[in-house]
Amino acid sequence: MNDRGRRYLKLFLSTLEISAFTFGGGYVIIPLMRKTFVSRLKWLEDSEMLDLTAIAQSAPGPIAVNAAILIGYRTGGIIGSLISILGAVLPPLVIISVISAFYQAFRSNMYVSMAMTAMSAGVAAVVIDVVITMVWDILKRKRFLPIAMMAAAFVLVRFFSVSIIAVIIAAGAVGYLGWLFEKRRRK
User: Fold this and answer.
1) What is the DSSP string of 2-30?
2) What's the sign of the alpha-carbon dihedral 124, 125, 126, 132?
3) How far apart are CA 42 and CA 36, in angstroms?
4) Helix (H) or strand (E) holding 102
């Protein structure tokens, strides 16, 4: 197997492993993807992972799948994107198929219910860790605009009940204008 084939296999196995052993959705998968693709494999820089996470969150669809698509494309092109989608989607597909076959038995089982409650607490802890990590990365860069946008988005959604869609569109527009300004400034 050549280097490209090994890279595709590693990409598939990494996304498969991450997807198979996480519970709680995209916000839980993001730190594991960061650990795998930034720290362990060194295929991405920390700032790239932060940017890919922001894009994955703002795109429609599940964050985990969006992140897998973006990481796959960044590390292996279109084929890498398809391979990482397969790796990310396969475990939940199998698990949901098994659960749906035995739904009645799972629904009323006290131990399954207790396990799900315990997993929810773990998921909350991981989501808090993701938020703290992302905020810390933004604060380390000491850039005013992302910090102001983050605070404004929180205040608008939490205290003024502004639609999250409106906040995402406004943040995208501000981000684009900031990018244009930065591009012109460099010339």
Assistant:
1) -HHHHHHHHHHHHHHHHHHT--S-HHHHH
2) positive
3) 8
4) none
Alpha helices in 21-143 (DSSP H): 26-34, 46-58, 63-101, 103-107, 110-141
Residue 9 corresponds to which tokens in the numbers above? Answer: 């296999």
- Along the 187 residues of the chain, how does pLDDT read in single tens digits? 899 999 999 999 999 999 998 877 777 888 889 999 999 999 999 889 988 988 998 888 888 899 999 999 999 999 999 999 999 999 999 988 888 887 777 767 888 878 878 888 887 888 788 778 878 887 888 778 888 888 899 899 999 999 989 998 998 899 889 888 888 888 7
Residues 6+ apart with CB under 8 A from 126: 24, 27, 28, 31
Separation CA 43–CA 48 (nearest Å): 10
Question: How far is Cα 33 from Cα 47, in angstroms, rounded to an integer?
Answer: 13
Instruction: Give CA–CA dist 127/52, Å, rounded.
Output: 17
Which residues lie below 8 Å from residue 175, measured CB to CB, with a gap of 6+?
149
